[in-house]
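Homework-ish question, so no full write-ups if that breaks the rules, but can someone show me the predicted structure for this set?
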Amino acid sequence: MLIEIKNLFVKVEGKTILKGLNLSIQKGEIHAIMGPNGAGKSTLAKILAGHPSYVVEGEIWFKGQNLLEMEPEERACMGLFMSFQYPLEISGVSNSQFLQAALNSQRKSRGEEALSNEEFEALLDEKMKAMEIRAEFKTRSINEGFSGGEKKRNEILQMALFDPALSVLDETDSGLDIDAMKIVANGVNRMRKPENALLIITHYQRLLDYIKPDFVHVLADGKIVRTGGAELALELEAKGYA
Amino acid sequence: MHSLEAHFQTLPKDLLQEIRKKAWSRFSEVGLPKPKQEAFQYLPLQKLEISEPSLRKVISKEEILPHILPECKNSHLVFVDGFFEEDLSISSLICQPLDQAMKSYGLFLQNRLKSSLKTEKDPLALLNSALQGKALFLYAPPQTSPEEKIQILHYTTDSRSTFPRIQLYLGKNAKVSLVQTSFSKVDKGFSAPLIDAALDEGASLSFCDFSELPANFQQFQAFRASLKRDSKLKTLTFTEGSLIWRSSLEVALEENGEAELLGLSYLKGSRQAHIHALVEHMAPSARSRQHFKAVLDDEARSSFEGKIFVRPAAQKTVAYQLSNHLLLSDLASANAKPNLEIFADDVKASHGATTSQLDEESIFYLRSRGLSKIQAKRYLTLGFCKEITDQIPFDSLNARLAYA
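A: Not a homework solution, just the prediction itself:
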């Protein structure tokens, strides 16, 4: 088991958002979580990444370790990646400087040597080309002045660089036009490996046309209320969540 | 005060004597800074201590060499304890002790010194005029533009007070780039340096002031510039602050002049930095921009008091002023006081001040990619500074920014 979430309760500012959520993901699997607005989908993504402003009860085991005891950076270094629904703009820090520091920090934690500037540049160029991101984005500040679609592509570029064991994509399809979604989906599909897994959080079924899930879960009122195969997404699209 | 006056009485009867006397009498009228004065209200004046003025001391070239920037090996001007030392200095511009220069450039200098004195209100700048050690006259003749950047080094060897002074004159279309650095061998001291710059038509001056002083140092520095038509000034004030640190910048612009005053204060511990900036638009079509940033950690304090003054004749003025403060600790505090006084009607002017903390969501974003909390904060802080640090014209100084 790659990740096991047991009886997860989450509160923020006194309000309970997740109410006993259970979910297990094996290596090689793709899971999709769908659900109405306010069901707690994005909260789940943030909890997995270690966002500090939530009160969390329950258990999360990632690669056999207690995820809830880990700092956000420790989770990243262990191979957990969360693609932000709204990636932050950070002025004054160049995209490539940040990516190199982040990648080398992760490598260091695994006892691997840091990539030299040349090695990193070569890797970054290759991944950027695959994500169809223009070279000038390297020197620009993180996400600053990027369009919504460019920000999402930049997230998937990071996923490609870090090669995480579990990627949580939080509404990566929102704000993408159909061409951008294909680029993102192709990028995600290229990274698939038997030892990695994906958790896709989405509102709509359309991304799942390009990245085919093994399991679809419906999250409503803080719990998973239904689980099925890929066909469940089509049914939800046709009939709604009600 | 008594030791200062006693010292004043011992100064030589040279060609500067008359100016010194005038300055001393102006200083006596004005007196030392008082906490109730607006210009000094944020300073910890109870700690102000002006020690007895220092005397000239001979040191070797070897001793100062480690403090010369690699870019300035062949162009540096050295002050030791406030005294300009010709033998330790090298420059392709005309540089002489001011008392000597009074012989060859007497008329120009007399006029300049007198008119500067007349408008000067800052007590420490007046004290500088009265007690200046061996001052430097630096002159870039018309049309000259030396390739090398010129370093001014203030080298302090003991804790007595110093009053280094530079009279700078750029002839028509001359172009000069200066960087001022300081080094103190002692951890306590007092210094009130002053640069008085006159830019003739079409001249261009870049002045980068890099202040890394010991924590217990007291520094009151002043920079004065008058810009004739079509001339340009860019100043960059970088400081780590100290026990008391204040920089007063005053610039007067004539027609089509351009001034850009930038600054970054990076303060830790209980260090302080206080900046006073005044840009006076005297004539039409001049442009000015003030942008000062401060990062405050621990119990650091800062203040920024900036003023744009537009005279009735100065139509078509464009003047901007902005100060941004980043507080890294709950105990740090920053004050900003923007001021606009506009007496012309066709003017574009604005001012703004912001105070912020590091954004928690941004920290989380960086951490979620594998950077430690410390790294994430450092990146965000560097990002805040970058707009200003990008403007530092010296690679060696950029590399020295210890937090980078």
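Now go work out the reasoning yourself. Hint: The radius of gyration of chain B is 21 Å.
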